[in-house]
Amino acid sequence: MISNKILYPTRICLQQVNRVLIKHFSHDVEPPRIEKTINSVQLLGRVGADPQRKGSEERPVAIFSLATHTNYRYETGEFLQRTEWHRVICFKPGLRETILNYLKKGQRVHVTGRITYGEMKGEDGRSKTTTAIAAEDVIFFQSPQ
Hints:
Order of helices and strands: HEEEEHEE
Number of helices: 2
Largest sheet: 5 strands, mixed, barrel
Radius of gyration: 26 Å
Number of strands: 6
CATH superfamily of the domain at 41-140: Nucleic acid-binding proteins
CATH class of the domain at 41-140: Mainly Beta
Distance between the termini: 83 Å
CATH architecture of the domain at 41-140: Beta Barrel
Strand order of the largest sheet: 1-3-4-6-5
Strand content: 35-45%
């Protein structure tokens, strides 16, 4: 009968060899300390204005505004609708061109993307913090009304 005391060190050595092999020969394996995170946004609303092409020739971007609404009813029965405006940007070449060619003011769309933060200089030279939704997919629901 073989003792577990003899097999245990062998098992540890094989695990160490496997780690070294994976570390040196595999580029697709993520290091174990990197944790996964989620940055996901979904919006359903109406386009505020026709999209604009901005950026440079090398890095063009489509930009449009999207309105979403939150509905409230007070205890008195009064109804209130609060509108929030979102800045949507798109860098993906195929989607960007589709947005610029077909998306129109008033159109209802569903945007899936991620929230991004950045800085830009205003006309007065001051830095201004910006927030935008970087679109990964846009679904057109209907023509503008």
